[in-house]
Amino acid sequence: MKKAFERRNFPSIKKVILPSSAHEILRCCPEVTFVRNIEEDSSKILEAITKSRKKVEV
Prior knowledge:
Elements: E1 15-18, E2 34-37, H1 43-52
């Protein structure tokens, strides 16, 4: 997943719904404000948000 989304940028994406295994996609969405995980374990998603997505509200 990481390699597939390297050097990609999707600034128009504001809402993302994804599984934890796809957390690498968050790096490509600098303007995301809403993130929903479709799995019970949210640890990877939360880690990705706290490291790189400061605009996330939900």
